[in-house]
Amino acid sequence: MISATGYAQLSGVVYGEGPAGNKTLLPAANVYWSDRQLGVVTDMQGKFSIAEPPAGIGIIVSYVGYESDTLLDFSNKNVEIILKESNILNQVDIVENGSGSHLDRMDPLWKQEIGSGELARAACCNLSESFETNASVDVNYTDAVSGAKQIQLLGLNGVYSQLMIENIPFMRGLGSAFGLEYIPGTWMNSISISKGTSAVINGYESITGQINAEFKKPEAKEKFFFNYYLNDAGRHEFNINAAADLNKKVSTILMGHFSFNETEIDHNKDGFVDMNTGRQFNAANFWQYISPKGLEMRWGVRLLDETRSGGQITGSPYFVVSPEGLWKSEISNRRGEAFVKTGYIFKNKPGTSFGFINSFSVHELDMLFGNKTYSGLQKSFYSNFIFHSDFKDTKHQYDAGFNFIYDNVTETLTDSSWNTEEMVPGVFFQYTYTFPEKITVMAGLREDYNNRFGFLTTPRLHVKYHINEKTTLRASAGMGYRSPYVIPENISLLTSSRGLVFLNEPELEEALNFGATLIRYFDVLGKELMVSLEYFKTDFQHQMLVDMESDTSNIFVYSLNGKSYSHNAQVEISYPVLKHLEIRAALRYNDVQQSLRNGELEQKPLVSNYKGLVTLAFASNMKRWQADATAQFIGKSRLPDRSLFPVPYQLEEYSPEHFILHLQLARNFKRWTIYAGAENVTNFKQHHPIISADKPYSPYFDSSVIWGPVMGRKIYAGVKIKINKKD
To answer: I need a surface site. Which of 96, 173, 399, 460 has the fewest CB within 10 A?
Structure first.
C-alpha cells in the first residue's frame, strides 16, 4: 500500500511488512520511473529522493522478497511506502506493459531489458526477429538454403552466448540450429540481454553474454490473446494464448502457434527458392501454484513439430536439371520439453529463499541437402538449485548451490555415426556486497566436473560504481567454457559441395572475457539524455575453428593453434526529443581475428566491421497510434578467400556496405490492434547468394557465403485481439 505525499522532488521511506503486520526498513530497495528512465535505491534507513516523472509515468518501488507497488499520485511532498512480503520467487521480474528497451540501473551486470513495448515495435514473429531494433545483437541467415538463423553478440556467433528460456538453457547441441525460430514472439513477455560473462549461478557457458526470454505468466492479467499475421511472401501465422485463474493459488496458461508457407519464390532467378516452404506447430501449457506460506511452483510442457523444404524449383527455366536430379533440401525438427520450478521464501528470515529448477528435453533433427544427409537425436536433463540469503544485513548477500547437466547426442552424417555423452555436476558460490548509491561488487566461483574434459574452474567478477547520481561505471571479467557440437552449430557446412574433414577430435573451448561500460545521464531541456559507452574483449585460449579457405575440395575443422580474439566497442544514445517521439542511435565497431592453419592472423570472414542503428518511436496520446522506423547501416565484411577457385567462382575481397530500413504502423483499440509494415523497404539484397546455382553438384557449389539479406522487400499486416481477466 502506498500513501502519496509529494511533488516535484519526491522524498520518502520504504518499509517492508511481514505477515504479522510488523514493519522493517528496506535499505537498497529499487525506486524508479515506470519507463525505467530514472531510478535510485534507498539508503540504509530506507530513505530515497527522486524527481517527479512526466505525465503518464508512475514510480515503481520493488525489493527482493516483496510485492512491487506503483505510485501514481504526486500531490504531496513525502511518501511512506509499505511493501507486502511476496511469495513469488523470480530471477527476472519485468512489468508486463514495460515501455521499450532500457538498461537496468540496479544490476551490477550490463543488462538490457526488452519489454513488451519494444517487442511490439516490429512484427516479431519469433525470437530471431526480436532484435531488429537492438544495436547489440545481430541476426543473420547461416546460408541461402536452410533458412536457419544465428545471432552474433560482441562480434562472435551466438553459440558463445548462453541462450535461456526462463533461466533454463535452451539452444544447446541440436537446438542451436533453428532454436531462435521456435520461440513465438507473442509468447514472450520480455527479453533480458547481458554482455560479458554472466553470473556463475547459471553455469560456465556464457562467454560473450546471456540472453534470457521470459514467457507470459499464468497469473498475469491477460486472459485471451489472438494474433494473425500475413506477408507478401506467402507466410501465414496464427497465435493464440488463453489463461485462467482456477482459484487463488492455481493458474494456468495455454499457448499455441501454427504457421505455414506454401509459396515458392525466386526473385533472384537462380532456380532456388528464396524462402523455404513448410509448416510449424508449437504448443505449450504452463501451470503455477502459489501458497501464502511462501511456496511457489511452476511447471509445464512444450511440444514442437516443424518441416521445411527448399532447393531447386521443379520446372524452373533458370537451370538444366543435373544428371543427379534436382538439388533439394528437406529439414524436420521435433522437440518436447518438460520442466518444474520450485521456489520458497522463508517467512521468518526476510531476504532468504531458494529456487530449484529441473528440466528435461528430447530433440530429433533430420536434414537432407542434395546428396548429404544428417540426423541427430539429443536427450538432455538440467537441474539447478540456488539458495539466496544475507550474511548479516542486505549489504552482504550470497547465492550458493549446485547444478547438473546431462546431454546424450547421437549424430549420423551420410554413412558415419557417433555418440556424445556428457555429464557435468557443479557447485557455485557468489557473494554480493552493496554500499547503497555507491558501489556493488559481485564475485562468483564455480567448480564443475565434465566427464569428457575433467575439472573446470570458473571465476567471475562484476563491479558497478556510481561515480555520481548521473554516472555509472561497470566492469566485468571472467572465464567461460563450452562443448562444441560442430555440425548442428554450423549446418551451413552441409550446404556446399565440399567435404567436411575433422583434423582432430572436438575439444573444449575456453575464453577470457573482460570489459567495461560507462553510462551517463544528462538533463537536456527538462528531459533525460542517455549516453552509453562500452568495450569488451574476448580472448580464446582454446577454440574449434572452421576453415573454409585453405582448400577447394574440403572444409577443415581443427583446434586453434595461435591467437583468436574479438574487440567490440559501442556507443549508444537515446533521447525523447518530443513528448511522443523517442530517438535511439548507436554505432558499434567489431575487430574479430583468428589464426588459421598457416599461422597468419586474419580477420574472421562474414563479420561486419561496424554497424550503425537509428530508431524512431512515435506514440500518440494513450498510444492509439504507434509508428516505428528502424534504419541499419551495415559495414563491410571480409569474404572467404576463394582465389584458388576458377575465376567465375571467385569472390570480391569484401562485401559492400549497405543500408536497411524497416517501418511499422499500428492502431490500438481497447481490445484489439491492427498493424502493417515493411521490412527492408529499400529492397536491398545480396545478388546471387548461391555460388554455382546452375550446377549444384559441381565442386564449386556453395550457399554458405551470406553477408546480406537474401530476401528483398517484405510487406506484412496483422491483427491482435487481447482480453484481460478484469475486462
So the answer is: 96
Q: Characterize 669-698 residue by residue with b for buried, 16 or more Cβ atoms within 10 angstroms of its Cβ, and e for exposed.
A: eeeebebebbbbbeebbbeebbbbbeebee
Q: In a 3-state reduction of DSSP, which class is residue 494?
A: helix
* Nearest alpha carbon to residue 586 among 570, 601, 599, 575: 570
Give the 3-state secondary structure percentages of the chain, helix then strand then coil, rounded to 5. Answer: 5, 60, 35
Report how far residue 607's alpha carbon sits from residue 189's, in angstroms, rounded to the nearest whole number: 31
* Rg over CA atoms, the chain: 26
Cβ-based neighbours of 50, under 8 Å, separated by 6 or more: 9, 10, 31, 32, 33, 38, 39, 40, 59
- Global confidence as pTM: 0.85
Tell me which residue of 460, 395, 452, 391 sits closest to 424, measured CA to CA.
452
Q: Give the C-alpha separation, 157 to 89, whole Å.
A: 32
DSSP-derived pairing of the beta strands 161-165 and 209-215: parallel
Residue 105's pLDDT band, with cuts at 50, 70 and 90, is low
Closest alpha carbon to 103 in 515, 530, 465: 530
pLDDT of 248-267, one tens digit each?
A: 899 999 999 999 999 999 99
User: What is the spatial distance between Cα 331 and Cα 416, in angstroms, rounded to a whole number?
Assistant: 19
Identity at 509, one-letter amino acid code:
E
Can you read off the three cell numbers belonging to residue 405?
Answer: 547437466
**Displacement of CA 500 from its chain's centroid (Å):** 30
Q: In this predicted model, what pLDDT tens digit does every residue of 564-609 receive, in sequence order?
A: 999 999 999 999 998 889 999 999 999 999 998 888 899 999 999 9
Query: Which grid coordinates are listed for 550?
Result: 585453405
How deeply is 551 buried, as exposed, middle or buried, from its count of CB atoms within 10 A (0-12, 13-18, 19+)?
middle
Q: What is the three-class DSSP state of 281? A: strand
Give the burial string for 554-568 (b: 16+ CB within 10 Å, else e). ebbbbebebebbbbb
Instruction: Please name the residues in contact with 586: beta carbons below 8 A apart, sequence gap of 6 or more.
Output: 135, 570, 571, 572, 573, 611, 612, 613
Give the CA distances from residue 685 to residues 174, 228, 392, 492, 660, in Å, rounded to whole numbers and listed in that order.
29, 27, 60, 19, 9
